[in-house]
Amino acid sequence: MEFITANFAPIMFAGLIVFLLLGFPVAFSLGACGLTFGIIGIELGVFPSSVLAWLPQRLIGIMANDTLLAVPFFTLMGLILERSGMAEDLLDTVGQVFGPMRGGLALAVVFVGALLAATTGVVAASVISMGLISLPIMLRYGYDRKFTSGVIAASGTLAQIIPPSLVLIIMADQLGRSVGDMYKGAFVPAFMLVGCYVAYIAALAIFKPASVPALPPEARIYREPNGSGGYQSLLVLMVISFLVSVFLARHMPEVHSWWLGKEITSVATDEKVVVAMCGGTFVALLIALINKYAKLGLLSRLAERVTFVLIPPLLLIFLVLGTIFLGIATPTEGGAMGAIGALVMAWARKRLDMNLLKQALAATTKLGSFVMFILIGATIFGLVFQAADGPIWVEHLLSSLPGGQVGFLIVVNVMVFFLAFFLDYFELSFIVVPLLAPVADKLGIDLIWFGVLLAMNMQTSFMHPPFGFALFFLRSVAPDKPYVDRVTKKVMDPVTTMQIYKGAIPFLFIQLFMVGMMIAFPNLVTGSLDKAQTYDLKAVGEQMLESLQPGEGQSGGYGTDGGYGSDEPQAPGAPAAPEAQPQPDSGAAAPEATADDPLKALQDSMKTAPKN
């Protein structure tokens, strides 16, 4: 029994692993392990019985957590857009734009995956949608099966890291940090990852062009009466939009000063990007609307199609993220606004009906319940684990690693990488992150950077052969038997499971490369964050002391005897100062009617404390 008592925390952690290996759902495994070891710990005297009495208050705190409301809101927003046919329209349109290029369809999948990630935030929805729509098209025109599977699965997992990602919301809640700051920190690494995917596709187009052929001319449907593709007017519209965006980015401090009514000298990079792109896309949409309803004929069919398909979801994304980054709305309010915007967009396209609404609400309820049950189970486990001094055991275990911060980060990322073989990102966030965050904080690691780093690492959990969830989602919609293509009427070979696994490996290495880049260059995350305000406590203290000292000829300050009164002699004929009352041992002075109120002076000095 003494051995169990002395090693209660590691035994409890091992017990959790046993519960998980038995095949029980993670939420119930966490709760059952916590309650079981809670009863055992009370019986052995490891901690008092009052520990379990704290549980109801913890659970009430979970239900009162406003931050978690962002999860169902963003989920509903994504499901409405996905089920209203937005993914199909985007893939069709972007595929037509990039089709004439080698690898154009793959580029379309990556860009649409990034757009879906910024609207749906749900990996399953992105992978399944693109698997159903783009996989048959890419196979039809001769794309390599392994590469096709890998690019679709990898693009779907972008929903993990591109704001408004659900995993970033959970990560911020577990780390005790702002969701808005987590979004800002993930902004640059997320789009760098997209750039890495694009670079890989470009390399294949140069060195293995047969594996990523261009779209044949007969498949390009948006042509002008003269036979041209209509790229000229699209290019002009893009240049105008780009120039407006650059102008806004360069004058962003003036825009902020006008909006807030006070002078702003600097603006964070992510805010510049989001607001500038929002302005540029809005101008492009305005030009397209004027051209359509005034029948000016300035834009080609392709340019009009791109504008009316791409701009509305882009504006919704920039509106949601922009209001969060600018501090106008909280992430929860931004999610609610995004859900309403998605409903309006679906209604405007005449695709919103009661059946679609029921399906989206049912799926949102399931995901929200899934998150809540895991969080409740993790709270039960965490409460008992903390009572048994588990965090201290973890801290001693990890803080003694050689190499300091770098050694800790390497071990943690390797551990998360292998745990991701078996656990979902929600489960990793609720089980592992609360144990690692205190150690990282004690080692002086910025928790926003640490959270984004773990989120990027957890993204690999969807790409691990043979357990990656994105691979399972793609397998569920990929053809497993020979089939007849509906356009060419040719018999097409199936996509094997091994081809899906092999196709995922290059993108898995790209994700790990980004993890290494974030460790080597933390400024990729922290550079997007607002500068923390610091205060000169010494100057504040000096100002407080000065304000508490009595002025010349005044009574009521602190005297040298420790009581109220003044050491200065009284003026002739002036009323005598009240006799100082005896003071308690603590040195606190009794309240007295004085000329200067020390409490008021203290409050005023704190209000006017100088900032650095």
Automatic annotation (TrEMBL):
<feature type="transmembrane region" description="Helical">
    <location>
        <begin position="106"/>
        <end position="139"/>
    </location>
</feature>
<feature type="transmembrane region" description="Helical">
    <location>
        <begin position="370"/>
        <end position="388"/>
    </location>
</feature>
<feature type="compositionally biased region" description="Gly residues">
    <location>
        <begin position="553"/>
        <end position="565"/>
    </location>
</feature>
<comment type="function">
    <text>Part of the tripartite ATP-independent periplasmic (TRAP) transport system.</text>
</comment>
<dbReference type="Pfam" id="PF06808">
    <property type="entry name" value="DctM"/>
</dbReference>
<feature type="transmembrane region" description="Helical">
    <location>
        <begin position="7"/>
        <end position="28"/>
    </location>
</feature>
<feature type="transmembrane region" description="Helical">
    <location>
        <begin position="500"/>
        <end position="521"/>
    </location>
</feature>
<keyword id="KW-0997">Cell inner membrane</keyword>
<feature type="transmembrane region" description="Helical">
    <location>
        <begin position="67"/>
        <end position="86"/>
    </location>
</feature>
<feature type="transmembrane region" description="Helical">
    <location>
        <begin position="448"/>
        <end position="474"/>
    </location>
</feature>
<keyword id="KW-0812">Transmembrane</keyword>
<keyword id="KW-0813">Transport</keyword>
<dbReference type="InterPro" id="IPR010656">
    <property type="entry name" value="DctM"/>
</dbReference>
<keyword id="KW-1133">Transmembrane helix</keyword>
<feature type="transmembrane region" description="Helical">
    <location>
        <begin position="273"/>
        <end position="294"/>
    </location>
</feature>
<dbReference type="GO" id="GO:0022857">
    <property type="term" value="F:transmembrane transporter activity"/>
</dbReference>
<feature type="transmembrane region" description="Helical">
    <location>
        <begin position="34"/>
        <end position="55"/>
    </location>
</feature>
<feature type="transmembrane region" description="Helical">
    <location>
        <begin position="186"/>
        <end position="207"/>
    </location>
</feature>
<dbReference type="GO" id="GO:0005886">
    <property type="term" value="C:plasma membrane"/>
</dbReference>
<keyword id="KW-1003">Cell membrane</keyword>
<feature type="transmembrane region" description="Helical">
    <location>
        <begin position="228"/>
        <end position="253"/>
    </location>
</feature>
<feature type="region of interest" description="Disordered">
    <location>
        <begin position="548"/>
        <end position="612"/>
    </location>
</feature>
<feature type="transmembrane region" description="Helical">
    <location>
        <begin position="306"/>
        <end position="328"/>
    </location>
</feature>
<protein>
    <submittedName>
        <fullName>TRAP transporter large permease subunit</fullName>
    </submittedName>
</protein>
<keyword id="KW-0472">Membrane</keyword>
<feature type="compositionally biased region" description="Low complexity">
    <location>
        <begin position="566"/>
        <end position="584"/>
    </location>
</feature>
<feature type="domain" description="TRAP C4-dicarboxylate transport system permease DctM subunit">
    <location>
        <begin position="13"/>
        <end position="524"/>
    </location>
</feature>
<feature type="transmembrane region" description="Helical">
    <location>
        <begin position="408"/>
        <end position="436"/>
    </location>
</feature>
<feature type="transmembrane region" description="Helical">
    <location>
        <begin position="334"/>
        <end position="349"/>
    </location>
</feature>
<feature type="transmembrane region" description="Helical">
    <location>
        <begin position="151"/>
        <end position="171"/>
    </location>
</feature>
<dbReference type="InterPro" id="IPR004681">
    <property type="entry name" value="TRAP_DctM"/>
</dbReference>
